[in-house]
């Protein structure tokens, strides 16, 4: 079964993300967000071939890419997640 984690993106970022100019998203999660556990499993390499889906908040257009990396760092008490993916042109090379 295809595993997909979903996010929404503002139009000015969505176009850069879809085109491959910006192949990552930076997120801070509410502690009750189920996506944290899912991303932790990707980060700790328990899950492979997981997709990210990005939806334009205005047009509702979506795209999916394979997650290539999940990195974290702390700012104060907040855990910040950087979720990166391979652009679709790169997926054929992987």
Describe the protein in words.
14% of the residues are buried. The chain has a single domain, classed as Hypothetical protein (Archaeosine Trna-guanine Transglycosylase, Chain: A, domain 4, Roll). The protein has 94 residues and is an alpha+beta fold. The two termini are 20 Å apart. Strands 1-3-4-5-2 form a 5-stranded mixed beta sheet. The protein has 3 helices and 5 strands.
Index terms:
94 residues; alpha+beta; Archaeosine Trna-guanine Transglycosylase, Chain: A, domain 4; 5-stranded mixed sheet; 5 strands; globular
Please specify the SSE layout and strand pairing.
Elements: E1 4-9, H1 11-19, E2 24-28, H2 35-43, E3 51-56, E4 62-75, E5 78-85, H3 88-91
Parallel strand pairs: 1-3
Antiparallel strand pairs: 2-5, 3-4, 4-5
Helical element count?
3
Q: How does CATH name the architecture?
A: Roll
Largest sheet: 5 strands, mixed
Which class in CATH terms? Mainly Beta
CATH superfamily placement: Hypothetical protein
Number of strands: 5
Number of structurally distinct domains: 1
Please mark out the parts with pLDDT under 50 across 5 or more consecutive residues, or reply none: none
Helix share, percent: 10-25%
How do the strands of the widest beta sheet line up side by side? 1-3-4-5-2
Q: Can you tell me the overall shape?
A: globular
Q: Taking all residues together, what is the mean pLDDT? A: 86
Q: What share of the residues does DSSP label as strand, in percent?
A: 35-45%
Named CATH topology: Archaeosine Trna-guanine Transglycosylase, Chain: A, domain 4
Q: What order do the SSEs take from the amino end to the carboxyl end, as H and E?
A: EHEHEEEH
Class derived from helix and strand content = alpha+beta
The N- and C-terminal alpha carbons lie at a distance of 20 Å
Radius of gyration: 13 Å
